[in-house]
Amino acid sequence: MNAQQRAGYDERIGKLHRDPQGRVGILTDILGTTAYLRPERGGREWPVSLDAIEPVTDKAQDREVLSAKVADANRRSRGEL
User: Fold this and answer.
1) How far apart are the first and last CA of the chain?
2) pLDDT under 70: residue ranges of the chain
3) What percent of the chain has pLDDT over 90?
4) Which pLDDT belongs to residue 81?
5) Which secondary structure element, helix H or strand E, spans residue 76, and what is its range?
6) What is the pTM of this model?
7) Which of 2, 11, 20, 24 is 20 to 30 A from 72 in CA distance terms?
């Protein structure tokens, strides 16, 4: 990744993104071709391929965030988190 590509991705840091599994998180860092997402309310970051994430649009943001929060709550209730 060259400096110009990195500069474009830097604008995405701090914004919500969705990974291929449907989890929504804040893009916290990019190292090489790996992006790191963190749950919006805090928690452990998880790595995902940079090419596999997509930004959450403003229109879909409320729905996506709510869906992610419900999914996290369900995983916690099952002892998965």
Assistant:
1) 33
2) 1-10, 58-61, 81
3) 38
4) 66
5) helix 58-77
6) 0.63
7) 11
CB 28 within 8 A of CB 37: yes
Long-range contacts of 23-30 (CB under 8 A, 24+ apart): 23/68, 23/71, 24/56, 24/64, 24/65, 24/67, 24/68, 25/68, 27/53, 30/6
Q: Tell me, what's the pLDDT at 52?
A: 95
* Six token digits for residue 31: 């190292």
Give the DSSP per-residue string, 6-35. Answer: HHHHHTTTTSEEE-TTS-EEEEEEEETTEE
Residue with the two structure tokens 């959450």: 56
